Amino acid sequence: MASGREQFGSNMAAVMAMAGSAIGLGNIWRFPYMVGQGGGAAFVLVYLLCVVFLSVPILLCETIIGRRAQAGTIGAMEKLAPGTGWKWLGILTVISPLIILSFYSVVGGWSIGFFFQSLSRGFCVGDTGNFAAFTSSLWMPLVCNTLFIFATAGVVAAGVKSGIERFNRISLPLLFIFIVTIMVYSLSLEGSSEGVRYLLKPDFSRMSPRVLADAMGQAFFSLSLGVGTILTYSSYMKKEDNIVRSGMGTAMFDLAFAVLAGFAVIPAVFAAGIEPGAGPGLIFETLPFVFASMGEQLPFISRLISIIFFLTVVIAALTSSISMFEVGVAYLVEERHLSRRRAVLYILLGTWALGSLCAVSPAVFDFCDILTSNYLMTFGGLLFVLFVGWKMKRSDVWGEFTGEGGQRGNARIFGFFYFFVRYAAPVVILLIFLSNLL
Ligand code: PHE
Questions:
Q1: In a 3-state reduction of DSSP, which class is residue 202?
Q2: d(CA 158, CA 166)
Q3: Residue among 31, 55, 105, 221 whose CB has most ligand 1 atoms within 8 A, to mutate
Q4: Entry pTM
Q5: Is the distance from the beta carbon of residue 100 to the nearest atom of ligand 1 less than 6 Å?
Q6: Can you give the residue ranges of every domain in the chain?
Q7: Ligand 1 centroid to residue 324 C-alpha, Å
Q8: Is the CB of residue 323 below 6 angstroms from any atom belonging to ligand 1?
Q9: What is the pLDDT of residues 267-322, one digit of tens each?
Q10: 245-269 pLDDT per residue, tens
Q11: Which residues have C-beta within 8 Å of that of residue 211, sequence separation ≥ 6?
Q12: CATH class of 11-437
C-alpha cells in the first residue's frame, strides 16, 4: 500500500499542513472567549504550559504511529498491531473527526455568512440580535454550511499534494498577515490598552480546577489531537523528516496564532467598553458590535477590517476542516480501495447530512461538540500515548523519534520523552478525561 502513496513535498510542507490543521476556529473563536472567561493572562499561562508539556508529546505520538505505518488510522493499527483490539482505536479515530467536522462546518458556515454580510452591507449598531437571527433562520445556516463543506471537499478532492499541501502553503502566510493586520487595528483603538493589560497581567484568583481543565481541553482541541488527523497527515511525511522539529514547529505556529488572535480580539472588545466574558458568541455577537461602533468614526477602515476578520476565520476553519475530511478519505482510498473522487463524494454526503442536522438543531450541535471535545478527543489521545508507550516496540519508537539514530539532538531527549509517554502523559490525560466526565 505504501508504494505510490502521495507524500508532502518537504518537511516545511508537512509542518504547514499540520499547522493548518491546528490553526482554526479553536484559535480564533474558542481561544479568545476562553481567555475572556478564564481570567486573561492566568489562563494563557496555564495554556502555554499545557501545550509544551502535554500537547507536543501527544502530537509526537500520533506522528510516530502515522509515519511508521505509512497508513491512515485503521490501516496504521492493522499494520502495527495486526489482529488485535487496537483496530477499534483506528475505527474510533476515523469516526471522531467526521463528527467534529459536522458541527465545525456549521461554525465555518456562520463565518461565511458573516463574511458576506461584512462584504455586502457591514454591521450597524442597531443590529443587535443579528447572530441570533442568523442562527435561528432555517436556510441561512444550511446554505452556509453547504458552501463550507463543499469547499472543504473541493480541496481534498484535488489530492494530498495539489490540494491539501497547496491550499495550506497559500493560506498559512495569508492567515498570519491578516491576523497581524487586525491586531494592529485593534491595538490602535482608543481604550485598547486595558485589553492588553488584561492579556498580560495574570489574575490567579480566577483560577479554578474548571479553568485548568478548560485550558487542557483547549490544548487538545487546538492541536487537533486524539482524532487521527495528525496521524493521517504524518503518514504523508517523508522518512527523513525530523518529527520533533516538525512537531515543535506545528505547536509554535498554533500558539503564535492563538496569541495573535487573542491580541486581535480582546483589546478591540475592551475598546468598545465591553467585558470579554461573552462566551461562544464573542466573535459573532460582540465583535460585529465592535466593528459597528468603531465604524461610526472610521467607516471604511472598520468595514475593511471586518471583511478581513471574517475571511481569516473562514480560511482558518478550512485549513482545519480539510484535515478532518482527509482522515475518512484516506481510509476509503487505502482500505476500501475506492478512487479519491468517490471517497470524497461519500464523506461529503455523510458529513453534509450530519452537518445539516447540526445547522438546524442546537441540540445535535451541542451533542456532537460535547461528545468529541470532552470525551472522544481525550480518549483517543490517551489510547495513542498508550499505544506508543506500551504497544509499539521501543526500537520502532526510537527509530521514528531519532531518524534511526541520525538525529543526535532528538536521541538525547528520547529517554525523557519515552518515560513521559509511558507514565506521566497517560495519568494526566486520564485526569482530564475523568474531570470532564464528572
Ligand atoms: N485544531 C482545530 C482548531 O483549532 C480543530 C481540529 C480538531 C482540527 C480536531 C482537526 C481535528 O480549530
A1: strand
A2: 10
A3: 221
A4: 0.94
A5: yes
A6: 11-437
A7: 8
A8: yes
A9: 999 988 887 877 777 888 888 888 888 877 778 888 899 999 999 999 999 999 99
A10: 999 999 999 999 999 999 999 999 9
A11: 37, 38, 39, 42, 43, 46
A12: mainly alpha
